Amino acid sequence: MRILFYILKVWLLTMVFAPIAAFAIDDPGKDYWYVYIVVLSTSLLLSIPAVIAMVAFLNFAPLDWGILKVKIVNSLVAIAGIFITFRLMDKTFLDFSERIVLWPLSYALIMVLFIFIFKLKRENPIV
User: Fold this and answer.
1) What is the DSSP letter of 99?
2) CA gap 26, 127 in Å, rounded
3) Which residues contact 59 (CB under 8 A, 6 or more apart)?
4) How far apart, in whole angstroms, are the C-alpha atoms of residue 124 and residue 76?
5) Nearest-angstrom CA–CA distance, 64 and 45
6) Which residue in 50, 22, 53, 52 sits closest to 36, CA to CA?
7) CB–CB of 110/18 below 8 Å?
8) How far apart are the C-alpha atoms of 11 and 95, rounded to whole Å?
9) pLDDT tens per residue, the chain (127 residues)?
10) CA quadruple 83, 87, 93, 94: dihedral sign
């Protein structure tokens, strides 16, 4: 259960703070709260497959791996999930010549930050 609480903290705080980080660089204008609520609700829904992948990885990662190695690989799983999700939504999100790439980058950076901030305690798999 500790793994689930760890992932929930990382996931929910990422969904709350990543749009704020993106808005700090690319101002949404006077409709800030409306845009934030739409982005937050959409993010919560669309990020579920990436969160499931992270839970699966943490559940089945070898128990002899150290915490640092697990967090690094978990970060890579999270980044891949974020970029795949944004790519499936719209391929222009990964256009590095446009400012729209700021969105997947903000989610990836914030999530990796939270992965390393929160303490992870390994236990036997839940399945």
Assistant:
1) G
2) 42
3) 3, 125, 126, 127
4) 22
5) 33
6) 22
7) yes
8) 25
9) 678 889 999 999 999 999 888 888 777 778 888 888 888 888 888 888 888 889 889 888 888 888 999 999 999 999 999 888 888 887 777 777 677 778 888 999 999 999 999 998 876 655 4
10) positive
**CA separation for the pair 58, 11 (Å, rounded):** 14
Task: State both tokens at 85.
Answer: 């999700």
Place of tokens 């903000």: 106
68 is written with which tokens?
């640092």
**Does residue 52 contact residue 80 with C-beta atoms inside 8 Å?**
no
Q: Are the C-beta atoms of residues 116 and 8 closer than 8 Å to each other?
A: no
Nearest to 45 by CA among 20, 75, 78, 11: 11
